[in-house]
Amino acid sequence: MLAYVARRLLLIIPTILGIMLISFVIIQFAPGGPVERVIAQVTGQDTSATARFSGGSGSDLSQAQTQRGASNDPISSKYRGAQGLDPEFIRQLEQQFGFDKPAHERFLKMLWDYARFDFGRSYFRDIDVIDLILEKMPVSISLGLWMTLISYLISVPLGVAKAVRDGSRFDVWTSTVVVIGYAIPGFLFAILLIVLFAGGTFLDWFPLRGLTSDNWDQLSLWGKIVDYFWHLTLPLLALGISAFATTTLLTKNSFLDEIRKQYVQTARMKGLTENQVLYGHVFRNAMLLLIAGFPGAFIGAFFSGSLLIETIFSLDGLGLLGFEAIVNRDYAVVFANLYIFSLLGLVVALISDLSYMWVDPRIDFETREV
């Protein structure tokens, strides 16, 4: 097993390199960039919804107002809207964002820095990127962790019950409810929850902003726990409306496949009870598919599936941070997010594979090809 783990760990390196290289090349051909963004702000052409995040270049903006003038310098012609700005100002912008170096040098420097977990500073926020990510991470951890746990705690027992009662009225009705819930967009359900329970039109039972109340520091330990889950209730309901379908139906189908196998009939003929058959034999084999899907479910809920929910409920997490970084061309934040979560996804996938052995010791990693 150690040899398998070593091969998987070594495989992470070229995988990360490939992800970063492809993303870096795509960015080079994407229109716009941090230099163009500052130029748009200087010339009054920046009308984006996230234009408020420009603190990192504030001094440059005021300086540029006094440096505008006619110029035919080639460096100004490289950027749309730069005509009339002082070429020296453009050069300072390129140096500030690192665009005064060739693309391959920027890429190699980024890899060297990221290998040491040095992510630099945000282009448009006066803060280190790692500090910015750590600042937003509690929100995404709260949403992703609790959503994944709740989803599995509900979906697995429900899927087992549906498999045991396959074709019954219970199975039909629960399938109908699960499919309808899966078809409802999470953001639409979030708006409905706000209207009904967050002071929109009817009831005002739940808060609408943040993970904690303003008087958080004054609350007792039990009060803090209650306040924390009070703020999480509506976002988790909105995320969970469609989170149960896949896991529930996968659990049901996995159990049905195992129940129909010959070893189950043999166990029943030996006189084992139905619970002994289900949870002593079938459960261990059927859960392998669910374990394989856990990393994707966790990572998806952790940072990629919560953008709209974070926006609607004013939760300043990693999903919203990543979206704003892309819109604002804050490449330092974009690539740091990509690197961290790609690495996290690969490590979690390895942990998931290793958990196979815990569920079913018959799996031999020594003879398995990567």
Automatic annotation (TrEMBL):
Topological relation to the membrane, as annotated: Multi-pass membrane protein
Location of region: Disordered: 52-77
Primary localization: membrane
UniProt-listed PROSITE patterns: ABC_TM1
SUPFAM superfamilies per the UniProt record, alphabetical: MetI-like
Family per record: Belongs to the binding-protein-dependent transport system permease family.
Designated name of the protein: Microcin C ABC transporter permease YejB
Source organism: Methylopila turkensis
